[in-house]
Design brief:
By secondary structure, this protein is an all-alpha fold. The chain contains six helices and no strands.
């Protein structure tokens, strides 16, 4: 499978995560909305890196790789890399707690995250996904 096919597969699955985030938000399941938003951002950014044939570490958070190759992207995307990095890092820190809570303190995920946290995460994920989708389709023309 080539890098473009991989990128298209990743961005498609990122869209699924985004829809699941929205559904969880509508169901007032804020931790899952955040977790799925993080997965959407992760897959969206990996799709862009894959589209441009950039190898990245097999980790959930790839902002360092994105930052390192930022000059390879069109200006409209490059100008937003700092924002995408901030979003990726923020949601990356919330990934585990959104699923498991703070186990050592016996604090469940549902006690940690608010509706606003989930709305922010969903909005960020939607923005990242839209931008990455646009970039991939422009690059493949």
């Amino acid at each position: 499978m080539n890098t473009q096919a991989m990128a298209l597969d990743y961005i498609k699955r990122a869209g699924r995560c985004l829809r699941e985030s929205r559904d969880a938000l509508e169901d007032n399941d804020y931790p899952i909305a955040i977790r799925r938003a993080q997965e959407c951002v992760e897959l969206s950014l990996k799709a862009v890196l894959r589209c441009y044939a950039v190898e990245y570490p097999r980790e959930h958070e790839v902002s360092d790789s994105l930052e390192a190759v930022g000059g390879r992207f069109p200006g409209w995307f490059s100008s937003r890399i700092g924002e995408f990095i901030r979003i990726s890092r923020d949601l990356g820190k919330k990934r585990g707690p959104a699923m498991y809570g703070y186990e050592a303190g016996l604090r469940p995920a549902s006690d940690i995250f608010s509706k606003k946290d989930a709305e922010d995460a969903f909005g960020w994920a939607q923005d990242v996904h839209d931008s990455c989708t646009r970039l991939i389709h422009e690059h493949m023309r």
